[in-house]
Structure formats: C-alpha cells, structure tokens
Amino acid sequence: MDTLIALNQVDSQTLTPNDRRLASEILRDFARRVQASDILAPALVVQEPDFKRFEWPVTNRLELLINALDAPIEPDDGRFHTLCEQDPLVVIICGLCLTKKKILRINQDLWDEVLRQAQTASQRLGPQFLHHTQINEIVAGTSGNFKQRFDQTKRYAGSISHMTMRGVPSYFYPMSDALKFRNLISLAFNRTVTAYLPAIEFKDACIRLTVLFDQEFLARLTGVVIENYDAEGCVLEALKEKIAPILGDDVLQACQKTQMWAQESKDKLTTQCVTCNVVPGQVIVLDVFVDWQEGIAFVNKT
C-alpha cells in the first residue's frame, strides 16, 4: 500500500515517453489483477479466520454453473469448454463467483486473469473447498461428470480410507515443509510430520510427528521423570507452560484455539492437546492438536 501511495505522488509529466508507456502497461496489468481478485472475492472468503459459511446466492451460483457444465455445451462456447477442462477446484472457485452469462461476457484479458488466479487459489486453498460441507452437498446433488471428477480429486488430495483420528474420519497429508509450525518439522527425526484434517468441519486437526527417544526432552515437555520405564510404553501429556518454549509460540496459540483446550479445566497444568506416546529406548510419537483453520493453513502453506 505504501508503494501505491508513493506512486500516486509521482508527477507523470516528468517521466520520459518510454517510462510513461511502461508505467501505463504496469498499471493496466495491476488494475486487471485487482479486478480479477475482486471478482473472486466471494470464494476467497474461505481464507478469512472467522469464515463459517457461504451466503446462499454464492452457493446457488455454483450449483447453477455445475449443472450448466454437465449439460451439452454449444460448440461456440469456448470459455465453457476451457472451464470444463480445468481442475474441479478451479471450477468451484469460478462457480462461486461467476454466472454463465458473466463468464461469456467478461473481457478476454480479464477472463484469462480470473482463470489464472483461480488456478493459483485452488492450489493454495484446495483442502478448504474439498472438505467444506456446503460444497460437498452441492456436488453430491449433481449426477453428471463433474461429480465423478470432484470425487476423484478428493481421493487424490487426501485419503479418508477408514482412517480416523480419535474417532473422527480424517484426511492425512505428509508435510516436510510449511510456513507454520516449522519447529515441529525440525523436531521430527525424519523432518516429516503428518497433518490430519477432520472430514467433519471445525473439529480439531492433529499434527503427528516422531522424535527419537530422549529422556531429557520428555522430562522438559511433560515434567515427568521416569527412572524405570515399562517396555510397553506410556502416554504423557505436555505441560501447558512448556509448549511455547519447546514446540513454538505458534503451536501454543493454535492449541489454545481448539475445542479440546476449551473443554479442559483452566487450573489443569497439562493438556491433551499435546500428548507423547512413549516407546522407551526407541521413539516418542507426539500428537499436537490445533484449531481446524490452523490445520488447513498448515497444509496449504499459508
């Protein structure tokens, strides 16, 4: 924003003809990108922290577009043919924002930019659309080719294949790099963690990692000192006050947003949000429960 304010203060009459042409091209391109982002705003609300549901006009627009795509398409509807060839997530993002009439009437350069941004957003926000109840209900109500493609994308993006995390059906995503919870990844002995995103919206997500058995690490995190371990192992809860210094401030903040944390007594010194499944002499498996939106952001690397 500071750059835009500074640019507005430039005296265009002092620029050379070549600089003015270049500035015009840059500004036209920027204006087109801003306009495209504005068009996609009804779909991009999913990345807002307090997002819960789409408004009815938005979901109705998507339903109508999916039905239109499943119907026979006229040969001269080039943009519809192009949209049909896109990943289902791109179709969903466009469908939440654009009617068929709008797609056919929009300026070609702007349409190209909308499509490009929808493709980028689908990679960044994919799980949020794939797992959202309203989206799934709309797609389930259709019977054409789009539903098959959507279900296939869902299978490839994550597997629910009878996997549950504490009784909740969940998709799993191995992660070795992310913008959030980097300290967790650095602690994992193979530098890989697994994120479990619940198929049921707004349930707590889980990040599981394995660290090599370390008595000192265990004592610092849980406050428990065990002199004689049982080979069968044990499960210990982490001290709330040790989560931030050992696992990271962002981990503590994400834990504090969970339903699990809210249900625990405030006077309790430990939390179920971080548990250590100890296999003496071998490994410690850490389960870290975080807010659903935090889990989505972790998987999306946002």
Description:
By secondary structure, this protein is α+β, with helices and mostly antiparallel strands. The chain has 2 domains: 40-153, no CATH class; 160-300, no CATH class. The chain is built from 16 helices and 7 strands. It has helices spanning 2-8, 17-39, 41-44, 56-70, 78-84, 88-97, 100-105, 108-130, 133-140, 145-157, 182-187, 215-222, 240-247, 249-256, 259-263, 292-300, and strands at 164-165, 168-175, 193-198, 205-212, 234-239, 270-279, 283-290. The chain has a 7-stranded antiparallel β-sheet with strand order 1-2-3-4-7-6-5. Strand 3 (193-198) and strand 4 (205-212) form a beta hairpin. Helix 4 (56-70) runs parallel beside helix 9, helix 6 packs across helix 8 and helix 8 (108-130) packs across helix 16. The protein starts with a helix and ends with a helix. 31% of the residues are buried.
Widest β-sheet, arrangement of strands: 1-2-3-4-7-6-5
What is the number of helical segments per DSSP (H or I, 4+ residues)? 16
β-strand percent reads 15-25%
One letter per element, helices H and strands E, the order comes to: HHHHHHHHHHEEHEEHEHHHEEH
Chain oligomer state: single chain
Helix content: 40-55%
Overall tally of domains? 2
Q: Decide which structural class fits the backbone.
A: alpha+beta
Distance between the termini: 20 Å
Low-confidence regions: none
Describe the biggest sheet?
7 strands, antiparallel
Q: Using the CA coordinates, give the radius of gyration.
A: 24 Å
Q: Residue-averaged pLDDT, rounded?
A: 86
Globular, elongated, flat, extended or rod-shaped: what is the shape? globular
Q: Tell how many strands the DSSP assignment holds.
A: 7
